[in-house]
Amino acid sequence: MEYRFQLSELITELDSVVAIIDPEMNQQAIRWGGTYSEWQANVQQLRDFINLRCDALTTGFIDCYPLTGPYSLVVNSNPSTAGPVKVNSIMIDQFPWTGTYYGGIDTRFKAMPDPAFSFDHWTSDHHTFFPGSNSDSVITDLTANDTVTAYYNTSSIHTIRTSSISVTIYPNIFSESFYNRLFTSLRNTRINEIANTGRQGCLINIHDRSGYDTRPAHFER
């Protein structure tokens, strides 16, 4: 089941609401009848219903659909600060993270590295990925409890700094001859970042008074 429908999340939500209204319940009972103890008993009844309902849903899915499991899934990121991992519709940014998922249905993973990192590969204790472990977006069908880890590399960054401009080039300034024309005018503009997107060009993030603007540039061989 997805994150918001897990038992721990539902109980946490109930407890948060109870904490808000609990201080008012004695006055509520005096004004409208009943007792504080009766209210506490009703809260416990609701908590018991949530526990039983989650157990019923866990087995009910198996009875209604051709699913297997549920299985415990641990999601990791290496390094843990490289960026979030999306599992189906859940964005995970705290690792390790544990959830419960079914087999007989696709479970989707997407690595979302921060700019300082690049995705490398996935690992799994028991499963294979489609289209392959080197793709940042993959699918698998769980058949057992598993731990899935996204591995990242740090980006190769070379920075040139002067008193007036800062230029960052990916992956290496010496791997390409410098482009023939950086920009038509640098007036009121600070060049912040140049990201190489291929042999023929790059993207320049310009920071000026209006914020960031991405403009194309071209290498000259």
Average of the residue pLDDT scores: 76
The tally of strands reads 13
Tertiary shape: elongated
Estimate percent helicity.
10-25%
Distance between the termini: 54 Å
User: How many domain modules?
Assistant: 3
**Helix-and-strand structural type:** alpha+beta
* Proportion of beta-strand residues: 35-45%
Low-pLDDT ranges: 158-165, 174-221
Helix count equals 3
Q: How would you write the strand order of the largest sheet? A: 4-1-8-6
**What order do the SSEs take from the amino end to the carboxyl end, as H and E?**
HHHEEEEEEEEEEEEE
Q: Which sheet architecture does the biggest sheet show?
A: 4 strands, mixed
Cα radius of gyration in angstroms? 27 Å
Written overview of the protein:
This protein is α+β, with helices and mostly antiparallel strands. The protein folds into 3 domains: 62 residues; 87 residues, no CATH class; 61 residues, no CATH class. Helix content is 24%, strand content 37%. It is built from 3 helices and 13 strands; from the N terminus they run H-H-H-E-E-E-E-E-E-E-E-E-E-E-E-E. The C terminus is likely disordered.
